[in-house]
Amino acid sequence: MNRCFPPATRRRLLALAGAGLCTLATLAQAQNAPRTFPASALRGTLVVTQPPVIAIDGKPAQLSPGARIKGSDNLLVLSSAIVGKELLVNYTVESHGMVHDVWILTEAEAAEKRKRAGQ
Question: How far is 71 from 97, CA to CA, in rounded Å?
Answer without folding.
Answer: 22
